[in-house]
Amino acid sequence: MSDERTTTETAETVAAHRPAREGEGLFAPRSDRAHPLTIPVFVVSAILVFGGFYLMGLAPSIAGAELWLFLAGILVDTIGFWIAFGWWQARDL
Fold it and tell me: What domain range includes position 65?
């Protein structure tokens, strides 16, 4: 049993320390260009996310509207994150 484990660990260790070939890896260069709206969409989603944080932080200081402002902040954050990591990443252009 220990021989199997040693073989597996050795294979994983070799794979982990193998140098990446050109074109592999996380930051490999790509031949396709980014869509022209990538930066504006990122800016809009960042504004929504930080605006949601602001609403959540503002909520305790407004008497009577704490819950609604906090929930609005969560909703705005959700929309901002969905635009950046859901809708924009899943688009088929």
Answer: 2-90
